[in-house]
Amino acid sequence: MKEFKIAFVTILMVSLTACTYTERIKDGKTAYARKQFKVAIPMLEDEFNKAKDSQIKGETAYMLGESYRRTHQIQSASDWYKRAQTQRYAKDTDLKYARMLQQLQDYDEARRAFQSAGRYAGNVRLYQEEMIACQKAKKWLSETKQNLYKVTSLGTNNAATDFSPVLYNADQLIITSDRAESEGKENYKWTGEKFFDLYLLNLKAETVERFDAPFNQSFHQGAPSFGKDQTSVFFTQCGSEEKIAVDYCQIMFSQKNGDTWSKPTVVDLGNEAQNYIHPVLSEDGKMLVFACNKEKGFGGYDLYYSIKMEAGGDVKWSEPINLGNKINTDGNEVFPFLDKDTLYFSSDGHIGMGGLDVFRVEKKAHKWQTPQNLKAPMNSGGDDFGFILDRLNPLPEGSIQQGYFSSNRIGGRGSDDIYTFQQQIPPPADTLIPVDTPKIMLAINLDGLVKEKLFNEAGNPNSGLSAYANLMGASVQVSSKDTAFTIGSDVDGTFFIRLDTATDYNLTATKPGYFTQVARISTKGIVLNEAHPDTTLQVEMILEKIFTNQEIVLENIYYDLDKAVIRESAKPALDELIVLLKRNPTLNIQLSSHTDCQGGTGYNEKLSQRRADAAVQYLIQNSINPDRLTSKGYGESILAVSCKCSDCTEDEHQRNRRTTFLVLEE
Questions:
Q1: Within this chain, do residues 39 and 107 fall inside the same structural domain, yes or no?
Q2: What are the OmpA-like domain coordinates in residue numbering (predicted)?
Q3: φ, ψ at 258 (rounded to 5°)
Q4: Considering the domain boundaries, does residue 76 fall inside one?
Q5: What residue numbers bound the domain in which 76 lies?
Q6: In the predicted model, what is the mean pLDDT of the chain?
């Protein structure tokens, strides 16, 4: 799901300078380009109604869908994406329309939209995981009453955005909000509302007022985590007093001395040129868990932890450590909450109901187990996040735990609202079944390893293979006839999954900037019994970096003298390219042909163009969309081996006669 989400609830993802641009906006397209979405909407609607050209209507409808989505008006976003879809505007319109339908909990229509998005991309099974998620979400909705959660909207919710509740004491929550009382004269141009500040919510009086602290300033603050005695706080700040083009989000720290909070300082976690958000402090104060969009992570935002180090009165935090591929995905994992050895977090990468879902995962024997989706009614088609447990107040009768979370689900009062929940005690089982001996678990395991190719010359794919290196952060989709799920390769390139018996599986490994690789495995014919209760299969998947606008030589493509006909001996190399393009349906390429220096310049240019055209035609005949292909004959203008023509050896002439392809930038 890396194509989508995490635009608003993470209170970042945009240059604050861009969002406070004050020049007069004259049209909707300009407002949209400057991310002033609330300003853009009425202008774009007027421009859509006046437009006559279908292409302009499609583009305007798409911008309206984006603007409504980014201001969290999901129904309107869905309506405008559908209009853009009818005009076949933009490759991702079907996908974004499907996402909106998920948030609206129209799972049957969303499933059809995902199928349409895959068909448009050239692979009807491309979004199989999302289609299965729609089926599961529909089932979870039907089982809401069985999940023993009682969810209630707080009476303090209003049209503003309220999220990330934190218990300040038994009677008060600290929340993040853009209410009218927020600091600063400027509004956030993205939404037209105030910047986010911290607020004190009184649960008994049902009142909300600004949290009286000096770190509520004229930019975004939110998602705090207080120390055990409430005299220290970590929080997210996006923006700074420095007027620079891009302000990253940082984790800030403030200490309370008496009644006064200190001026916040940045928590040094390493690279400043990335976003650190949503801190949560462990109960003993020695570990900080947070989200970060490091380039070497598994996807968008991953969860990390850092250990407190004290020496000579100075406090430092260790280099962030990734929580690993059991928790992190190629999507976004954000808003962590710790409860001893249990971690709650929100994710749009694990299979869920749409948007962010809340997950629970336990640590046993120092290892994280498989995250569990809390399902409906805790989760919904919208964003569900900012989960916390209430350990300060007595449990209501019949409950085993209680707490709070935030959501922009259907039926809320604002963009995001605060909800309280109680998990009820499950009813007693009708009968107890005695267990005499433990049942032996029969299991088929898959140990996987993802590697990448390394070349003799870094950045030159024509220099020859030198070695392989284990590759972290690749996404491996595992799909069968009935199921689909995705797991990331861990820091050492490994991944581990449990397989069903008598099942054929397709494995698809992807990583941004790399060509997709596939593999097939089967558990058919594997017999397990008490004497042989488990077995392990192994698979290795090798990815290769994509070098855009750089020619890659296709080996063994030769032509007869003065001919431009694809020989049988050349077809295997072109067939491999066809497979590559089908596995990577978003890539566009240029096929090029080069001659040696023998013959006239004009003759060589025409001959090479005919040969490049023949190679393109061969790909088209094998079901590659012609819109993805271009051809170019260079003649003798770019020689692989530079030599005086009369002195070139036949081997040098042969190296100059070549067919290449290059991946074009999108």
A1: yes
A2: 546-666
A3: 70, -120
A4: yes
A5: 16-142
A6: 87
